[in-house]
Amino acid sequence: MLGVIEESVFVSGWYILKLGILIWQGFASLDSNSLATIIGAITGAIIAGGIGFLVQKRANQFAKEQKEIEKSENNKALGYSLFFKFAKIQAGLITAEKHIKECKKKIPEAHKENMQLWQVITPLAVRQREIYFSSEEITLLASLKQIALLNEILMLDHSYNSDFELFRVYGVERALLNSMLSSEMIDGQGQAKFDPAKFVTAGPKIFEVNNLAVQLDRQISEDVEKVEKASDQLAIILKQELGIPLKVETVNK
Known about the structure:
Layout: H1 2-28, H2 32-105, H3 135-143, H4 147-153, H5 156-180, E1 182-186, E2 189-193, H6 199-242
C-alpha cells in the first residue's frame, strides 16, 4: 500500500514538473510584445484581485462595525426602558410605604394598644398601573452577566403588581366591613361600634380585613427593602456597561 502511494506521489510530481517546463518553453518562445502583454494582463488581474479583496474586507469590517453600533444602541434603549420601569416601581412602593407609615402615626397614644391596623390604614386614592419587565430587558442583564442583579429584580415587577392588587382588594373589603358597622369620631379617629349580636357576621370579616392590613404592611415594607437594595446596583451597572448616567433618588421617604 505504501509503495502505491509513493508511486502516485512520484507520478504527480513528474507531471507538475513537466507542466512547468511546458509553460516556461511557451513563455520563452514569445516575442517581447506578447510577453509584455501577458505579464501586464497577469499583473492587472493580480492588482484588481487585490483591490477587490481589500474592498470586500473593508465592507465586511464596516458591516461588523455597524452591527456592533446597532447592538450597542439597542442595548442602551433597553437599559433606559428597564431603568424607567424600575424607577416607577421604586417610586410606587415608597409612596405606598409612606402612606402606611403616616396612617399608623395618626393612631392616638390612648388607643394604640386597642386599635387594629384595618382601622387606621386607609386605601390609596390612586390605583397604580401594572408594570412588567420585558423578556428583552431581562435578557439584557443576563447578557451582561449580571446574575446577582437579575436575581434581585427578576420578580420585582410581579411583586409590585401583587402589592397594589392587594391594596385594591383591601380597599374593597374594608369598605364592605365599614358598611356592616356604625362608627363615631373619637380623638379625630373613626371608631367602629356595633351591636354584639352582629359579631357573628362582622367578627370574621374584621379578622379577615385586619389580616389583609397586616399582610399589606409587611409586604410593602419587604419589597421597598428589595427595591432599594437593587437600585444602587442597577445604577452602577447601567453606567459602567451602557453609559447611562441615571440613578433613582429617594426624597423625603
